[in-house]
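Exercise 7 asks you to align residues with tokens for two separate proteins.
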Amino acid sequence: MSVEDRINEIKKIIKYHSDRYYNEDNPEISDYEYDQLMLTLKAIEKEHPELITSDSPTQRVGGNAKRKAGVLVKHNVPMLSLQDVFTKEEVYAYVNKKIVELESPTFVVELKIDGLSMALRYVEGILTVAVTRGDGIIQGEDVTENAKAIKDVVRKLKDPIPYLEIRGEVYMANEAFDKVNQQQELLDKKIFANPRNCAAGTLRQLDSKITKERELSLFIFNIQDIKGIEFKSHTEGYEWLKKQGIKVIENYVKCKTADEVWNAIQVIGEDRGNLEYDIDGVVIKIDNLEEREKLGNTSKVPKWAIAYKFPPEEKETKLIDIEVSVGRTGRITPTAIFEPIRLCGTSVSRAILHNQDFIDDLDIRIGDTIVVYKSGEIIPKIKSVVKEKRAGELDRFKIPGICPVCGAPTVREKDTADIKCTNPNCLAQLERHIINFVGRTAMDIKGFGTAYVKELIRFGYIKDIADVYSLFNYREELIEQGIIGKEKNTDKLLEAIEKSKGNEAQKLMTGLGIPSIGKVAAKTIMNHYKSIENLQNASLEDLQEVSDIGEISALNILRFFEDDKNCEIINRLKDYGVNMAVEDLKQVDNRFDGLTFVVTGTLTTMGRNEATEVIEKHGGKVAGSVSSKTSYVVAGENAGSKRAKAEELGVTVISEEELVNMLK
């Protein structure tokens, strides 16, 4: 791979993860992993400056401003990011360089809160505008109403001045975050991965009542602009802000030497676990404002401050037990159960151990002291075993040779690390199979929750997916036993089951639970074969000719329909009146024949489903992801990573209006 190709590959990865972090509030990797990617790109660009382009992530600040909680507002003062450093040597180099450049400077060491940046503007002492960082240079989102719902936001200064703009970090304390997730669970809603994501999503949503309920907090860490009063130093400004009732960063430390700075960093790092909120590092700033002016800024970062980033948080704990569970396909998964610890703002006590090979490679044993971290600051994982703390001889753990649910033998699949239950009628497999079948991505039967599935299986009403449609035969029994609830609840669920019979055939295909056949593949297959009956008669060679269906998927489909039990279930579903065929789209013309579209973002005059139908009626194909084979990406508002990928690959991006014009 050439240097240019390597740079383009890293840019592509960084832009994807930047969009996940800044614009979707849903990162897939940790800050540390992201920072390492940026360091790699910077190092290559330093060696090859001729390859630096204006769209490089190293030349940009933050994400895109989004229209969610309000209109877009121009920045009066850029909300720049900070240069990150990761080692003691880099800290000493920065501090000592500034000591040489300036005459006996004073440094301020502060906590770096892991939250969302926001600026507040006061005119004649009254809060007028609150704006997010957005792109950091040109504009951000107006979140004034939501900001006013935050208890730490002061609406009126005690000593009014003509103008004040301050910048702070919106965050969520760990206790408040736990309360929100408890409420989400009670309401059967998706829980938030960490406090930072929750705070960002809360500040950007539309209802300020929700913002108030979720108890966001705010620390101010800089005066961006001020008129009517002057300060000589950053900390002098802090003292004035405190008198106005404004909450500034806690426990900041003033230092004169690199040793003092490093000692302050160490103290903060040691106390990190005792704070009521998450921090991901410390900020080192020049205190004197004239010296800051002298040093100035680059296009992206101030030269008068840096951020030292802590390595990924990891903690030791004791392994209490290893549980095994059986998945929908019969795969047995071991899970580590350990003494609860707090990582990245949440309490964790479980981590997937994947398979026997993973357990053997770690040599992990019940009773061991283990080191746990969070992958992408979201998923708990076990990093290692602290073998020097092992107490005597502990037994090695082996996944049992019999299924923990049904007692059938387990076998290791050839050429894989997977151990599976050999009983196709295993209760655990059935539960997960039914949950998948009635779920949102498959038959989408409203109100058919996991608890109902388990009870109906336990009482013997459901033994396979076709039995879902036989439940109306037992209406009186179900009401009498109260399995689903009273008459009203039972009838409501039975109506939802009846309604699902008319679903599109690809939903049924998804619900069959064929390995490797998800929602997208199911739609492709059904659009090709038009009916389940046609699919049943397809050969392996025929299946492999279907676009985007590989050999493994084709084999899985073939094996599914070779099973007499599965064919019997299909016939029963047909007898119950479940739709088995794709409704033929009346093609208007074939102007899009041979063209592949990807629809992304929010469309204003039509939904994505409508846009998909329109494209297909004109002979086009709609795919779920962008590739070099994509002809056009139809991008609405907040198009995100798919638009970025299209631009990287040189795929033509069109607006909704341009799509409509193509149809005229």
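Second protein for Exercise 7:
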Amino acid sequence: MANPIAISKKVITDVLIIGAGGAGLRAAAAIKEKSPFTSIAAITKVSSAQKSHTCTAQGGVAAVDPKDPHDKIIYHEFDTWKGSDCSCDQNVVRRVCSLAWDEIIWLEHHGLHFSRSPEGRIMKRPFGGHTLNFGEIKAFRSCYEADRTGKGIQDTVYFMALKNDVQFYTEAVFTELILDGECCYGAILYDMNEGEFVECRAKATIIATGGKARMYQVTSNCRQNTGDALSIFLRQGLPLMDIEAVQFHPTGIVGPGILASEALRGEGAVLRNNQDERFMERYAPTIKDLAPRDLVSRSIMTEIQEGRGFLHPAHQLPHVMLDMRHLPDVVHDKKLVEVSSFFKTFLGVDPKVELCPVTPTAHYQMGGIPTNIDGQVQIDENTIIAGLYAVGECATASLHGHNRLGTNSLLELITLGRTTGEHVADYISQVTINGSSYSGDFTRSTFDKLLAVSNGSESQFKLRRELTELMNRCVGVFRDEKILLEAIEKLKELKERANHVEIKTKNLVLNQELLVTWELHNLIDVSLGIAASALDRKESRGAHFRLDFPERSDDYHYHTLCWMDQDMNCRLGKRKIDMSIYETEQGALKEKFGIIERKY
């Protein structure tokens, strides 16, 4: 047996940011703007912050210029509310949409090179679900830097972090929150480079670890997106919110799952079935291929299930086709050169002359760690954990409800990243660092157990494959009671089998075998929470679609809270959906933010 795990080092900082993507580093910039002498440590699971998943975002960031003669902020608020299937929090929607243009200007002033029109204005493109005049016509609302907008944002906030002397710890993994009652005083980290576990004390801790969709067979998520923080929250007795809401992006490239950005359809690309029909006209007659992602994904799967799809000969995956042949060369060669080239790189298909195979790919989590509007983590609707914040895709304020509109993810990073950072700056000015001793029992017991297995009978690679196939089949685009019950039973079996995976390498330095086995446990934990929450929500809302309950029900007009006990049993609760725009507006405008029908 390996030597018992020990916490061998202690680090003290004013602010600990776990996750060094767009959300975490935008928060760091806001903290430094308000409190320049604050010490900040940023932890990233990868070898550099510039490898964060934010860099993969392609199409743009939604923002309405208050001087725009056609678009209005209220239209963006309406589209976000309608797109969420009436389940986002309206106070968060109002704050984010109102701050959007300020953040575009902030990014530009700090180095991001937005694409420009010949007149020198920031270029904008349409995206799914974004409209003018409350749904009448598509809106040009997405500001972009070619097809590398996420990379531009990440570079901007990363270089701001370097300028502000943020201390980076790379290839470091978050393993435990340091909690004392309803207060957080930092976290335990596994420093893979040094092969040691570190106690990091801080006045405030910000969780910004991003997505989790690696439990699915086809996903756009990077390898590191394994839901680590979400699993830790569940196992430390804290709730998650709305985790049944998993967004499948409709146009993942068959095989790798990499996105063929919605920007392609914004530029005029269309979806076709095996009868060469533009089938989205059947499902969303007004905005067709630019309908919200959940609707387009279900439409594609319906076409496939009714025999109008294709089967890819190499990957044996069902799919439809994205037609870009009619787009001008400037789209292929300049505007979206990287996305267009993905088809050549991964499938050997030339999008200028050939149809491109696409299929829904697990892409985004609308649910996650519950927070209030200031990013403070909540135990329930009225109770926060002092000193603990969450922002970005791992957090749920909730801007997206049960379905996110394209480009609102990058918008959330920069707006709520800023406001969370500002709140942290105020909070840390009023508190001191708690330096009392901490045992780290949760981390030590977790990793001691993993390393103690000898003569293990299971392979983590085989279990991971079984997990992804199970989640795709039972907790994917379409769900029902029978397959969700099957998923829960099988997930508990997988969890037990995962306890019999032997880690042959006992040295802790860069131990990838240990890391991937730990990640497997995290994925199973979060998958069980997804399945249990999906089983309890007996309706269809946004990305959560039940074949046995295909209509939205007012009985489920709330956020789902999910706790998990040590025996992997889930307890579910509720949090109220904020309706403050509806409650404060008058007349016809008030009706737009009520429980509205969702047609496109």
